[in-house]
TrEMBL record:
Superkingdom to which the source organism belongs: Bacteria
Functional note: This is one of the proteins that bind and probably mediate the attachment of the 5S RNA into the large ribosomal subunit, where it forms part of the central protuberance.
Family statement drawn from the similarity comment of this UniProt entry: Belongs to the universal ribosomal protein uL18 family.
Keywords for the protein's UniProt record, in alphabetical order: Ribonucleoprotein, Ribosomal protein, RNA-binding, rRNA-binding
Any one cellular-component term (Gene Ontology): cytosolic large ribosomal subunit
NCBIfam families xrefs: L18_bact
Coiled coil: none
Name of the molecule in the record: Large ribosomal subunit protein uL18
Biological-process GO terms, alphabetical: translation
Organism per entry: Thauera phenolivorans
Amino acid sequence: MDKKETRLRRARKTRAKIAELKAVRLTVFRSNCHIYAQVISGCGSRVLAAASTVEPDVRTQVGNGGNKAAAEVVGKLIAERAKAAGIEQVAFDRSGFLFHGRVKALAEAAREGGLKF
């Protein structure tokens, strides 16, 4: 198996458990240049809130979208938007990525912003 396949296998196991619980999930995707976060409904069919480093207002705050500072900005923004949508409790879906670096920075910023997971 290659690197992408093993990541997707890890993601599948996590998502199966979250789907079983019917929990609202905060999912994260990171590429080399950007990081994206979405809050997805318990049924998995609706995106309730989203934030990423591709957005123009985030781009003005951080020059490079592929670092921890950018991940923290996105974490605070997704927490703010989720709370505006009336969501406080989420399940964290790291999409098979290891919980360190940018993924961890985003998660901690979202926790500071008021999301519980």
